[in-house]
């Protein structure tokens, strides 16, 4: 897998911009990066506990994708297994972190951790299983190793 430089967040406001922009569907499409996915989800976990992310994150991301001209199909857009794998990883990371710290510091630390890597899900799923239509549509159990 190609290594990409990690883009860090410089302030809590920058993280809030991503999280609130996702919710409001006002985030410019070019800002919806891997880092933004993790920042938005971390922000939602910490700042919007009233949102049941286990059931609502699919709709939040799918509606956002459509609002910026994207589609949610069998080959692009929302991916349920990857989304829920990272949600689980973010919750694990936060359970071991000092959540009193600034949100952007937490997000930056997450991005540098194993759970923040673009290839983290491939520790648990084969590429074929993870990239399957079934895994995109619904949660699919890992086939290589159990998730923490």
Automatic annotation (TrEMBL):
Protein name: Uncharacterized protein
Source species of the chain: Sphingomonas brevis
Origin superkingdom: Bacteria
